[in-house]
Amino acid sequence: MPEIRYICLSDLHLGADNSLLTRLGSHPGEVDPAQPSEVLLQLASCLRELVHHNHSPVPPTLVLNGDALELALAQDNVALMVFERFLELMFPAAGAPLIAPKILLNPGNHDHHLWEIARETQYIEFLEGKRSKVPARTLPPPWHTTSIFNRRPVDSVLLNAIVSRHPHMASQGVSVGAVYPNFCLKNQNKWVIFSHGHYIESIYWLMSSLSDFVFPRRPRPSSIGDIETENFAWIDFFWSAMGRSGAAGMNIEQIYDMLLVPHARRKLIRRLARAAGHHWIPRAPWLGEWMGLLSAPLISILLNRIAVLEKVRTGTPLSRKARHGLKTYIEGPLAAQIRDEDNHSMPAQTAFVFGHTHKPFAENMDYGHFPPAMAVYNTGGWVVDTEQTEPAHGGAIVVLDEEFNVASLRMYNEARNAHDYRVRVEAVDSSRNPLYTHLAQLVNSDKDPWRSFSQAVAADIAQYHQNFRHRLSMAGVV
After folding, report:
1. How far apart are the C-alpha atoms of 435 and 1, rounded to whole Å?
2. d(CA 386, CA 313)
3. Which helix (H) or strand (E) segment is 353 a member of?
4. What is the CATH number of domain 4-197+343-474?
5. Domain residue extents for the chain
6. What percent of the chain stands above pLDDT 70?
7. 0.85 surpassed by pTM
8. What is the pLDDT of residue 304?
């Protein structure tokens, strides 16, 4: 019987008030980071059920594949406290741990700052001679990635400080190690590659695109190291640092919410146009505001290029634009990194696991430089950032066995009827995948803990939709 050796989760957005894994407070817009949410409690029960059926005493390794913490739209201390609740469920003080003590963290765009802290730690360790011999005179610039075949993750000193608050975790050797932005597990027959997935969208290449516009003859970055070098500051600033910006950060959160909803976005565009005109003619602000509305079409073009993120595109798990972005990333920077680090030919079977879009799916895809029929899995997300039900949005757990077979537990997709929330198992090679067969026998959506999990999601999701509408109302758009 297959043994579950790796469990992959992404887009938990711990600390965000739109995350199902963050408990809401007693008042709209508030959260209670001192207690786990009901969905988080039930998710832990499902993970415990998975681990319980392993025969090996060694628990599986957890891979947090990006946006584990919400650092853009939540205060750091709140996100860290909710992460602490998550750790307490993974490593209960009275009971066996659910996961192995060494956690792998591959940061995304919303917790990119965790990588910045780890990246600086990596360079400090290099200077101290802990990673390699330091040159006598000339120092290389700090690098922005880790090896895709990394066997020595960088300590996440911030998250490990949370671990140290719990003596029983520290005594078990619990720690979080960071890799970024691509990570590969492999044996002789199979490779499984993890990447958060934000670089499949052009907005995260913004600094490169601006440089291309101003200097059209310059060489476009092709390696993942160069891409990250040019764009890390933009990603870290806008997508992973706003939470610590005080009252201004709260205003940015309202703007971000408005960008996600078409009718709210239109009101934001008019508001920006009128505000600009107000400052143009301070002696006649009403005239300036009227004239400012003339700039609304230009502002609309600019904002729509930013606002139409993949997670906002409804009706399909992956839009045509995102498919092109995924193909460009896999055939370009990802393939180049593999060629640079491993000259051996790829095995016949390769899987790619990513998140970011909040829309889970499993599909075979063909890419240049890789064997045909790459198994592509998306882990979805755990946030509610729409006014109404969006069936493409949902969350999944991707698991690997000791032979690197891959399967996905589709934990939920948003549904209008409570009875439509049911956990199911999927794999692109289900007919010949022993891990899929094992999980299909294990997961009975009509029995606990799977039933209780679905009931918890169905009961809470309407409240989170209402919470999102409240946030829009605070911005004066509903």
Report:
1. 8
2. 11
3. strand 349-354
4. 3.60.21.10
5. 4-197+343-474, 243-307
6. 84
7. yes
8. 57
